[in-house]
Design goal:
By secondary structure, this protein is mainly beta. The chain has a domain of 100 residues: Jelly Rolls (Sandwich), CATH 2.60.120. Helix content is 4%, strand content 33%. The protein has 1 helix and 9 strands. The strands form 3 sheets. A 4-stranded antiparallel sheet has the order 1-8-3-6, with no helix packed on it. Strands 5-4-7 form a 3-stranded antiparallel sheet, with no helix packed on it. The protein has a two-stranded antiparallel ribbon with strand order 2-9. The protein starts with 37 loop residues before the first strand and ends in a 10-residue tail after the last helix. 19% of the residues are buried.
């Protein structure tokens, strides 16, 4: 019976692919990581034209990657921008309002993944009410027409 082992020792040859397999997509220094934080990775999918989550904040930093489609992304103090499939985004969390994460397209869905570092005992996401939005309206960057 022929020996089908790839090497005389029976082990597969070691690959060197790992040396070039990594592509750095994003490197940031978040302003804080909540003590005792736990990580959560989720996938979010919005149908065509969906506005996404109402204005909200996260208890810790969040790091994301758009898998399909285009997302409108807007954080407090920054102009809204479009993040396309294959691009990354992040937000510091804490007291920063996340205004938009909706689908920028009305003909295709958007799908993205987010890894969040959540403060213990606090919700991953807290909606911001209209009163707070009005109080902080001066912190919102001018919006595109």
């Amino acid at each position: 019976m022929p020996d089908n082992d790839p090497t005389p020792t029976g082990r597969r040859p070691r690959s060197d692919a790992w040396q070039t397999a990594l592509t750095l997509l994003q490197e940031v220094e978040p302003p804080f990581v909540p003590e005792g934080a736990h990580a959560m990775t989720i996938v979010i999918e919005y149908p065509p034209g969906d506005p996404g989550t109402p204005p909200h904040r996260h208890s810790g930093p969040a790091f994301g990657y758009v898998l399909e489609g285009e997302m409108v992304f807007e954080l407090e103090g920054e102009p809204e921008r479009v993040v396309r499939a294959g691009e990354v985004f992040w937000e510091p969390g804490g007291d920063v309002i996340h205004y938009q994460d909706g689908n920028n397209r009305d003909d295709v869905p958007v799908r993205f993944t987010v890894t969040m570092l959540c403060a213990p005992g606090r919700p991953m996401l807290t909606l911001v009410d209209d009163e707070e939005l009005a109080r902080r309206r001066d912190r919102r960057a001018p919006r595109r027409p």
